[in-house]
């Protein structure tokens, strides 16, 4: 029986470093794609200029690195269709060990659509509700691939 | 297992838990309009001055439904708890706790016309302000697994 476990510890270190990154990538790229598809299909709000729908973007963030959709690209889409109505999205705070999944459309009126009259035009929250199980499946699948 | 065709009965069970069930009495007693202050979201007016009841009040809207492993459905409902700006979030926070307690499965099993429902998860959201009504609110989310 070997008494030197240093190589095992090194492998475990690598695994603990790689695992959350792979989970964040899967969640942002695969899960984010599902979310954008879902919110683009909504009819919960009037889409007068097309900017909100064109600007939908989803991405995950882990330790300051983003995976999945590009917020800058989404902002460009919004500005192209509704000039002057693009908005910088404030990133939610997260602890060092958390992976955050964000779905939004960077317009000045997204918050208005999501938070008016008890959710009369709400679309981001219900999309998250609907996909909760599938998003969990994306994370579980990625974990399974990394852990073998 | 409850099928998606039974969304109606489950929605009614969640709504009437606060509107008229004994378990929701603790919530209604904190509302100046009692049961009338517990409504469906579509009954909210477009401007605050058209409100027919005194705040604080609660409005419910069903959210999305997730299917997990092809067998379990997770149905999401949101209670929007509103109050006047002058009252800040003090009364809202108190009512949010009462709503959470009203769904506590250790105290009250949630029943519907299709039978007893499974696990119920309740979470209380952040403080926010409705830009249309000009009223502060907090959302209490109720997820029913069935």
Overview of this protein structure:
The complex is a heterodimer of chains A (148) and B (146). Chain A contains five helices and three strands. Chain A is mainly alpha-helical and 148 residues long. In chain A, helix 1 (6-40) runs antiparallel to helix 5 (124-147). Chain B is an alpha+beta fold and 146 residues long. Chain B has helices spanning 7-19, 25-28, 90-102; strands spanning 38-40, 57-68, 72-82, 111-112, 115-116, 120-130, 135-145. The radius of gyration of chain B is 15 Å and the shape is globular. The mean pLDDT of chain B is 90. The A-B interface holds A 111-112, 115-120, 122, 125-134, 136 and B 41-42, 44, 46, 59-61, 63-69, 72, 74, 76, 78, 80, 82, 128-133, 137, 143.
Write the layout of secondary structure elements.
The complex is a heterodimer of chains A (148) and B (146).
Chain A: H1 6-40, H2 51-55, E1 57-62, E2 65-68, H3 71-81, E3 99-104, H4 110-115, H5 124-147
Helix pairs in contact in A: 1-5
Chain B: H1 7-19, H2 25-28, E1 38-40, E2 57-68, E3 72-82, H3 90-102, E4 111-112, E5 115-116, E6 120-130, E7 135-145
Parallel strand pairs in B: 1-2
Antiparallel strand pairs in B: 2-3, 3-7, 4-5, 6-7
User: What is the distance, rounded to the nearest whole angstrom, between the alpha carbons of the first and last residues of chain B?
Assistant: 6 Å
Task: State the major sheet of chain A.
Answer: 3 strands, antiparallel
- Proportion of beta-strand residues of chain A: 5-15%
Parts with pLDDT < 50 across at least 5 consecutive residues of chain A: none
Percent helix of chain A = 40-55%
Supply the number of helical segments of chain B. 3
Q: How many H/I helices of chain A?
A: 5
Q: Helices and strands of chain B, in N-to-C order? A: HHEEEHEEEE
Low-pLDDT residue spans of chain B: none
- The helix content of chain B, as a percent range, equals 10-25%
Would you tell me the overall average pLDDT of chain A?
A: 91
Order of the strands making up the biggest sheet of chain B? 1-2-3-7-6
Structural category of chain A: mainly alpha
Order of helices and strands of chain A: HHEEHEHH
Q: Give the quaternary arrangement of the chains.
A: heterodimer
Task: Choose one word for the global shape of chain A.
Answer: elongated
Which radius of gyration of chain A do the C-alpha atoms yield? 19 Å
- Which chain pair shows the most residues in contact? A-B, 20 and 28 residues
Portion of residues in beta strands of chain B equals 35-45%
- Sheet/helix structural class of chain B: alpha+beta
| Main β-sheet, spatial strand arrangement of chain A | 2-1-3
């Amino acid at each position: 029986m070997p008494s030197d476990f240093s190589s095992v510890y090194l492998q475990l270190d690598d695994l603990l470093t790689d695992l959350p990154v792979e989970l964040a990538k899967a969640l942002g790229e695969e899960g984010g794609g599902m979310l954008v598809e879902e919110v683009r299909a909504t009819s919960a709000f009037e889409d007068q200029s097309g900017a909100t729908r064109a600007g939908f973007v989803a991405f995950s963030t882990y330790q300051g690195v983003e995976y999945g959709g590009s917020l800058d690209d989404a902002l460009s889409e919004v500005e192209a269709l509704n000039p002057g109505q693009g908005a910088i999205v404030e990133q939610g705070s997260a602890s060092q060990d958390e992976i955050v999944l964000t779905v939004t459309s960077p317009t000045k009126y997204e918050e208005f659509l999501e938070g008016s009259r008890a959710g009369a035009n709400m679309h981001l929250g219900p999309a998250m509700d609907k996909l909760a199980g599938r998003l969990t499946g994306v994370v579980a699948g990625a974990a399974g691939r990394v852990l073998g | 297992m409850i099928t998606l065709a039974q969304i109606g009965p489950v929605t009614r069970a969640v709504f009437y838990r606060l509107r008229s069930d004994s378990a929701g009495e603790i919530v209604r007693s904190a509302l100046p309009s009692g049961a009338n202050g517990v409504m469906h979201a579509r009954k909210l007016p477009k401007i605050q001055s058209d409100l027919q009841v005194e705040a604080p009040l609660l409005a419910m809207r069903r959210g999305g439904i997730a299917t997990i492993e092809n067998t379990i459905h997770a149905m999401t409902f949101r209670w929007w708890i509103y109050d006047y700006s002058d009252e800040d979030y003090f009364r809202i926070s108190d009512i949010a706790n009462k709503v959470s307690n009203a769904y506590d499965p250790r105290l009250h099993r949630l029943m519907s016309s299709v039978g007893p429902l499974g696990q119920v998860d309740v979470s209380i959201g952040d403080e926010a302000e409705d830009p249309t009504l000009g009223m502060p609110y907090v959302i209490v989310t109720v997820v029913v697994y069935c």
